[in-house]
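Researcher: We plan to redesign the surface later, but first we want a full-length starting point. Tokens attached.
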């Protein structure tokens, strides 16, 4: 799945789309990738002399991958989008720098109606950079939040 196909499943758009491709997907898991290029706007301020991709953006990449996974399981033509509701046990283990490629793996561990419970792992060159557990709820697009 390329960026255009990803954008058919989730509402995220550049500059806040943190997925470049979906390598594989099934009913309970997804593997996606993101090229961390030096020209990403975030590096203008974090940190200009020592650019580091914030861990929270690695979490966002995992949650966007989860949104693609969830979109696959919801009814076609639906009016709901997954919204993050919780993050637990987040661990940042290794810095991510320009030139790295994020491998983003998310597994659905449980679903209770419109609530989805997931585990995510972000890696670079086979080394874990971020781990997290999180939940998302399918929310009506027009619902006032």
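Model: Full-length starting sequence:
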């Amino acid at each position: 799945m390329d960026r255009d196909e990803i954008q058919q499943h989730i509402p995220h758009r550049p500059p806040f789309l943190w997925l470049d491709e979906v390598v594989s997907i099934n009913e309970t898991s997804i593997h996606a990738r993101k090229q961390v290029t030096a020209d990403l706007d975030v590096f203008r301020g974090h940190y200009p002399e020592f650019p580091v991709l914030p861990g929270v953006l690695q979490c966002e990449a995992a949650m966007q991958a989860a949104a693609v996974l969830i979109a696959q399981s919801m009814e076609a033509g639906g009016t709901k989008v997954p919204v993050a509701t919780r993050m637990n046990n987040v661990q940042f283990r290794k810095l991510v720098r320009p030139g790295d490629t994020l491998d983003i793996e998310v597994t659905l561990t449980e679903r209770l109606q419109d609530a989805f419970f997931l585990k995510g792992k972000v890696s670079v060159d086979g080394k874990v950079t971020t781990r997290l557990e999180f939940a998302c709820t399918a929310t009506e697009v027009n619902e006032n939040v």
